Amino acid sequence: MADQAKEAFEKASLGAENKAYNVVAKLDPEYFEKLKGLYVDGTFGRQGALPRKTKELIMVGITCALGRARGVRLHSQRALTLGATPREVLEAIEVAAIPGGMPGLWLGVETLEEILKERGQEFK
What we know:
mainly alpha, AhpD-like, globular
């Protein structure tokens, strides 16, 4: 069961690795299975009213507003992988500056620039 949950997380991650999930899976497989139910089955793996790309852009904004660097990176990477343009990611970051303030904007744009550089992409 835990192996299936790990596979589901890996598929949902779209290559943006979060090693913390591997640790949780190892330390508490029962909890990890429940977490998979919420994260994969209930949110990112579910075909709901919002496409996955939109969900990832929402998460970019939320994590910027909260100042969560790991989340900004993971969700920005995933949004880009799902076809979001750098400008769409930037707009999610800019919207987050309203509730989150300038530090969230700085975090978001610096992270986006790093990701694009890593991917050999330019902002258009």
